[in-house]
Predict the structure.
Amino acid sequence: MKPYRRRASTLSVRRTLRRRGAQPKVVALGGGMGLSASLAALRRITGDLTAVVTVADDGGSSGRLREELGVLPPGDLRKALAALCGDDDWGQTWARVIQHRFQSKGEINGHAVGNLLIVALWEQLGDPVQALDLVGRLLGAQGRVLPMSAVPLELQALVKGHDPERPDDVDTVRGQATVALTPGEVQSVHLVPSDPPAVPEAVEAVLDADWVVLGPGSWFSSVIPHLLVPELLDALAETKARKVLSLNLAPQPGETEGFSPQRHLEVLGRHAPKLALDVVLADEAAVPDVSAREPLADAAKRLGAAVELAPVAGPDGSAKHDPELLAAAYDRIFRMHGRIGPWR
């Protein structure tokens, strides 16, 4: 489990990736900024990329549109589309446009342009997948974005110590936005409805993939929810694709405060005990010595996975992944751990 060193400049990494030719089919599961970071890296490696996005958001612009119109929350879908925009002028212009939020004293305040565009097409076409494909074509997105379910979902969590005056009591906390910032210790999460239908195209993408990437992102509110959709979990168990779990750079205030890297794996395993992984990717600075690496390796082994350590954090010291370094880490994993296939 030795960390590898940064051996090449980001420019040389790009040249290597461009020379590869045939590409792996990759499906990335998640939501929010964690999924966006993963997609920004993966689009540098492959043009055959599908994002499967959680649809439990109930905060901000998404929450308002969901409550008013009864639609899927569009925000995480919008962020995924923006992350798949190219680095040329067209792609970066459209990425900025769909991420733009109106500032006013009226009802439009806080709404993102991309949210309104996505919802408008949903209403026009009556098909969430067709509408997202159309937005992707407009943006020149380098990949496809799919919701994990075609119905809006509510995330609920059992939280110990949610009320500081009752530190030993377990309460039910409702709503993704609330769960993400909840005080106390999250014991488990579940979805309402408890047996939501998966989008068929998402299931097909997982079954047809060479690699499935789960994480990084808000652990209980963006990563684990995919494992609570029975058809998606069945597809993850059935697929011949290899699976990599990308850990966060640091615990998040609220839902994973105080979590060690191995504890992230333990809670994921409790929610999906039959799920097997192949690789766990962690930033080498997050597990700097043997005392941290051995427990992580043991937890990964219980999920069937090996640990890969790599420098993937951004240079500014924030808990954000660097897309070039993350791309290099994914590329190495795909080459070193992947099955021989036509894309090799």
